[in-house]
Specification:
Helix 9 (258-270) packs across helix 12 (354-362). This protein has three domains: 1-71, no CATH class; 77-122; 167-362, no CATH class. An eight-stranded mixed sheet has the order 1-2-3-4-8-7-6-5, with helices on both faces. Helices cover 41% and strands 17% of the residues. By secondary structure, the chain is α+β, with helices and mostly antiparallel strands. A hairpin with a 2-residue loop joins strand 3 and strand 4 (246-255). The protein is built from twelve helices and eight strands.
């Protein structure tokens, strides 16, 4: 039988080598003749492995030179377990490599998502900053365009009320009623005075034409008797006086002549019981009062004038004081208002006073 040759490695028959042998050396196994094993050329990998580091061995090798194609081998865990060329150690190395590859792949994907997130946040911040800057610029532009310097508002100057010279008090005597005229007087009465002296007002129409006393008296509500009106002239003045911070009114009316002055004095004495009610339009600066018809007038003197007075509330709050002085009928609504008007008339003489005329007649 065949002699078995012992080798360190199991012999294998290289089918490719058999195919590449010279046809003359090939043995036709199909022929019916004796074949010896020793005559069969068997190529093993023993010498190749022993001389793997010897390049000259492969130069003289009878095998034909052929460039081996580069193949990508995908090793599965199943094949590694059955391959005779891979040891258990190689299997562990392959498994570790596979785990490492998967880990790197996972890390790579995680790193990509992290970079994408950072880029997205950065872009968002840039857009927010740009939007905020644009909004700030837009609001600044709008504020610049909206802010228009308006010309300074110059308040209408309040006409200064003179206490030295007469002031005009204009009313529409033809169309205004009593209440409207009283409201206009209150407006002037509430204006501040420049001194402690009373302020004189010449009552005129809208064209600054002085209004006759009788027409003004009937319009505002002075209910004098015709006998009193007949002794009075057209010229008159309205007075505003501050009596210890309380605004009070007074009036002075020119008397026609000396004869009418005597008649006027007698008629006023007769009408004293109703005189305070007849002069009620002068009480518009006092809110609460009550006329007492029982009280009577009393006598007083100041600055050469004989004064008749009646206290409605008190001499300081509200009263009716009248006197015929320097060709005028002077009426005040407090004790001090009457005296202040008398002082004013004394310092602003226009004609000879009625009392002087009366004294001349009596003498």
């Amino acid at each position: 039988m065949f002699e078995e040759k012992q080798n360190d490695s199991t012999p294998s028959i290289d089918i490719n080598s058999l195919g590449n042998m010279d046809k003359n050396n090939q043995i036709n196994l199909s022929e019916n003749k004796d074949v010896k094993v020793s005559d069969i050329s068997v190529h093993t990998m023993k010498k190749d492995l022993e001389n793997i580091n010897n390049p000259e061995y492969f130069v003289d090798s009878p095998l034909p030179k052929k460039e081996a194609p580069v193949a990508t081998i995908q090793i599965s865990s199943e094949k590694q377990g059955t391959s005779p060329f891979l040891s258990q150690e190689s299997k562990k190395i392959a498994e570790n490599k596979e785990v490492t590859v998967k880990k790197k792949s996972a890390d790579h994907h995680g790193l990509n998502w992290g970079k994408i997130s950072m880029i997205a946040v950065s872009i968002f911040i840039i857009f927010m900053a740009a939007g905020g800057g644009y909004y700030y610029w837009l609001t600044r532009q709008n504020s610049k365009t909206e802010i228009v310097e308006a010309p300074p508002v110059i308040p209408e100057p309040t006409p200064e009320i003179s206490t030295k010279n007469p002031n005009y008090l204009n009313i529409d005597i033809d169309t205004w009623d009593s209440a409207r005229i009283k409201e206009e007087i209150k407006i002037y009465a509430n204006k501040p005075l420049t001194s402690d002296s009373p302020a004189e007002f010449v009552v005129a129409d809208l064209q600054n034409n002085p209004i006759a006393f009788e027409k003004f008296a009937q319009k505002i509500g002075f209910n004098f008797s015709p006998q009193i009106f007949s002794s009075l002239a057209e010229k008159f003045s309205l007075f505003v006086y501050s009596d210890n911070g309380k605004t009070r009114l007074g009036i002075s009316i020119n008397i026609k002549d000396a004869e009418n002055a005597i008649t006027l004095k007698d008629n006023l004495t007769k009408e004293e019981t109703t005189l305070d009610a007849e002069l009620e339009p002068l009480f518009i600066t006092t809110s609460q009062y009550q006329i007492d018809k029982v009280k009577t007038f009393s006598d007083s003197q100041y600055g050469g004038a004989d004064i008749r007075y009646k206290n409605i509330i008190s001499p300081e709050e509200l009263s009716v004081d009248y006197a015929i002085f320097q060709n005028k009928l002077v009426i005040g609504t407090t004790k001090m208002t009457e005296r202040a008007i008398i002082d004013y008339v004394s310092s602003h003489p226009d004609v000879q006073g009625a009392e002087d005329i009366l004294e001349d007649i009596q003498n």
